[in-house]
């Protein structure tokens, strides 16, 4: 995936946590395990036919990077987990992937 101008890293907000919470269950299904801790830490966003969020999420001692698409309001689609990277660390930079 090509990114335009590099988005700026920001600390996760309540809005970003709510978006992460919406894709927690699909991620648990894909990984076939439960994540009792699922706290959004930081994110980058990019506007492309909606908003794409690249978010670092803490799961106990491990981290995952999730890519989430929030479609345009007129499309009336739910937030979707489009990609993810597991086994990330606290120091791993969130990037477009």
UniProtKB/TrEMBL annotation:
Origin: domain of life: Eukaryota
Residue ranges of domain Cystatin in the record: 1-97
GO molecular function, one term: cysteine-type endopeptidase inhibitor activity
GO cellular component terms given for this protein: cytosol
Pfam (any one): Cystatin
Compartment annotation: Cytoplasm
Keywords associated with the record: Acetylation, Cytoplasm, Protease inhibitor, Thiol protease inhibitor
InterPro entries: Cystatin_dom, Cystatin_sf, Prot_inh_stefin
Family under the similarity heading: Belongs to the cystatin family.
Name recorded for this polypeptide: Cystatin domain-containing protein
Organism: Bos mutus
């Amino acid at each position: 995936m090509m990114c335009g101008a590099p988005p700026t890293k920001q600390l996760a907000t309540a809005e970003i946590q709510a978006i992460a919470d919406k894709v927690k269950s699909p991620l648990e299904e894909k990984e076939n395990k439960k994540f009792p801790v699922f706290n959004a830490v930081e994110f980058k966003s990019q506007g492309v036919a909606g908003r794409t969020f690249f978010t670092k999420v803490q799961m106990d001692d491990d981290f995952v990077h999730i890519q989430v698409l929030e479609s345009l309001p007129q499309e009336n689609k739910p937030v979707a987990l489009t990609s993810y990277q597991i086994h990330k660390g606290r120091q791993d930079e969130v990037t477009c992937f």
